[in-house]
């Protein structure tokens, strides 16, 4: 029996992930440099409403004030990086987390990730979580040599304990359309080791909970026990997905759209 797309082991580093990460930093820097985020009080755009992010004649124009929500932001990164969600995709679509939580099950251009003994998160990984009909999605931006601090783990039994976030070495990018404590509206890049707290591990924050699941999966993979990176407990669902790149026909776009106003950051060292 052939493995299903969700169980297929992915190559270390994925495909086109570095391109997606570069585009991530371009989008975030662009909107910040134009004053389109950083605590904007503008009315946010949610993907399920009429998109403010427009796509006309091959040009993708971000919403004013950087107020696209998380899924619209990630959708724009994917499409402007020359990647498609489905082989037949011909125009930009602001997908929602309700769509993304099922990506990687076949028929699209993503595969559910699987860590190995020597590889865990990589730039361009998409991480989505949903609970009670509400979701959030982020993308991995930069990754250090030991993203989850696994060098300090000596035994598979240590994978059962809570992670030490201070050992983590990667950054994430997201866009939020809802003001929360310590969180501004608009796109941002943040350091994982500084962003998770003990209270987040208790299960109240499903965006943090998925990273505890991913840490534990990476830890177990280190000791030869890999698993597909999708999780479900009651109404809580999450997964890490990677783009298939050229391994699936039609999943890359040889003529990616222009991102409006991106000239201002092309010379930046992002």
Verbal overview:
The model is unreliable at 1-51, 198-204 and 264-270 (pLDDT under 50). It is built from five helices and ten strands, in the order αββααβββββααβββ. The protein is globular. The strands form two sheets. Strands 3, 4, 5, 6, 7, 8 and 9 form a seven-stranded antiparallel β-sheet that branches. A three-stranded mixed β-sheet has the order 1-2-10, with no helix packed on it. α1 crosses α2. The protein has 270 residues and is α+β, with helices and mostly antiparallel strands. The longest helix has 17 residues, at 17-33. The chain has one domain.
Number of helices: 5
* Total individual domains: 1
Percent of residues in beta strands: 15-25%
Q: Which overall shape is indicated by the principal axes computed on the Cα atoms?
A: globular
Mean pLDDT: 74
> What would you call the structural class?
alpha+beta
Helical fraction equals 10-25%
> How many strand elements?
10
> Sheet bearing the most strands, described?
7 strands, antiparallel
The first-to-last residue Cα distance is: 44 Å
**Strand-and-helix sequence, N→C?**
HEEHHEEEEEHHEEE
Low-confidence stretches: 1-51, 198-204, 264-270
Give the radius of gyration: 18 Å
